[in-house]
Amino acid sequence: MIVSHTRKLIFIKTKKVGGSSFEMALSAFCGPDCVITPLGWGDEKARQALAGRGAQNFENTRWPDGSVSAGGFVAHETAPSLKARIPAAIWRDYRKITIWRNPFDAVISRYYWRRRTLPGLDFGAFVAQNPDLIDVNTEIAPLSGPARLDTYLAYENLEAELAAIGLGDVWEVFRGLSAKGQSRPKEGASVAEIYAQFPGAAAAVARACAEEIAHFGYDLPAS
């Protein structure tokens, strides 16, 4: 999570969308007063080398109006939690953004991340056993209600959508990064082919992610 006073921007970090790489890139445009939550140790070192700054101001955060948010902000802080903890003027006036990804694709990346420690786990079993992981992003960044964000950037069209909101310079840094990207094989079965091997998995994802599928018009990618 990042609150950038220099860009008047709040980035809420959803899961398996390239969020760590995006935070590394955005940190390069942050000032000393911005709020930046920690990354994992390796990514944090890479961010400091790239951006000249790492995690900062995330504990007992002092805001420009002099108020203090006690306790520490965390990487995947939810939008409702942030709305309750940061000054109302900042929540109102800053652009609140996140990155969203087709859930049929995102679940596969989440599976490969989990499989690093459970090498025998197959995709169908992962989907069946982890329904709480499939729809986690709507909890972090609600699509409706009082904590709804201003901008949901499409992972699949990120370059154009960042340019449209004046963050083309962040894209230029982001495009060269791949934090955590090594978990998923670069080559292999397509999204559609993976689901074809596990017929119940697509239906399970469709049920769990019905809200976001309807909201963004997602479908199972073709081969």
From TrEMBL:
It comes from the Bacteria. SUPFAM superfamilies: P-loop containing nucleoside triphosphate hydrolases. This is Sulfotransferase family protein. It comes from Sinisalibacter aestuarii. The lineage of its organism: Bacteria, Pseudomonadati, Pseudomonadota, Alphaproteobacteria, Rhodobacterales.
